[in-house]
Amino acid sequence: MSTNWTEVFAAQLDEIVAELKTYVEMETPTHNKQAVDQLGNFIADRFAALGCKVERHPQEVVGDQLRIEYGEGDEQILILGHFDTVKEIGTLTTEPWRIEDGKAYGPGTYDMKSGIVFSYYALKTIIENQLPLNKKLVFFWNTDEETGSEHSKELIQEEGRRSALALVIEPTYGDGYVKTSRKGGGEFTLRVKGRAAHAGNDHKIGINAIDELAHQILQIRALTDYEQGTTLSVGVISGGTVSNVVPEYAEAIIDVRVMKASEAERVTQAMYTLKPMLEGAVLTVEGGVAKTPMERTEATEKLFLHAKEQAKLEGLELKEIGVGGTSDGNVVAVVGIPVLDGLGPVGDGAHASHEHVVVDEIPARIALLVRLFTTM
Ligand SMILES: [Zn+2]
After folding, report:
1. Which among 1, 67, 216, 281 could bridge 55 via Cys, Cβ 3.0 to 4.6 Å?
2. How far is the CA of 250 from the centre of ligand 1 (A)?
3. Would you say 274 and 174 are in contact if contact means Cβ atoms under 8 Å apart?
4. Confidence class for position 41, pLDDT limits 50, 70, 90
5. pTM score
6. Burial (CB count <10 Å: 0-12, 13-18, 19+), residue 140
């Protein structure tokens, strides 16, 4: 009979929750290198004590990135997460660590310090029980995910290229869905240059930049394709000076979201080839789809079905969903490996004051990680 790992972790739940409390009480806003490094050192020591190889990628402005390796061989599984948070130092005074109605509250509980704690306990159990691995495990704990992974992106992708697949231990969705796709997105700025003229005397020789922008907005609007999961939204417009001058300048800032890389290409191509409608108007376009989508490929589906099967052995009914928000799942998906995201805690309130994880759901989620780490 195979072990029920959920029971094993349920018996250690107090210790696991106490470990999470330690993480949460070391506040880690992304921009505070010193604070982030303090928790980074703590995490590094923890994994080193298990016998892992710990490598620090030193950073100047953000916390040092942590790469932690366990196991042998050339094949590897990449396990991704971050320990920076959006919450400032001192948030603990207004949002203290506390357990209420079976929920553990505090900054970074849900997004996503518990994900690292879960990974640690999964690995600790694998080592203590000498469970064999099919592939080496490489944990990459990022320090600047919340500001867009600018300092970690290349390291993550380099690691991704060496990996067979990636597991992202970000929070689950809703009551425990894992995430098999994430939209990509970005921003465009469209600038229109016309020609100023007196609105009374010289109306005819003016080129109205706002009129031109209005034409372009309709073109941009037409690029939305709900069936493909592509949306464009003109979110900000500005232009003109006073009403009696034909405006020389106007601009728009446009939000873009895509589910497919091919759609990112289509939209970018269309935006950069917008043609002016008014004679003499000049358009310039900047920006693009900075975060590529994490697509649900056939390989993703296979990975999810495997996870679903493993979850079932723990009595857990695993469900999947595609979401709009981005994570390091988008960053690593670029290299073409399958990614399963949202393998972390059940809870709610990422970036909000009611941030929490559901304590009773913790054991089954760690149990699933044990199974995934040893069977992939
Ligand atoms: Zn996160």
Report:
1. 67
2. 36
3. no
4. very high
5. 0.86
6. buried
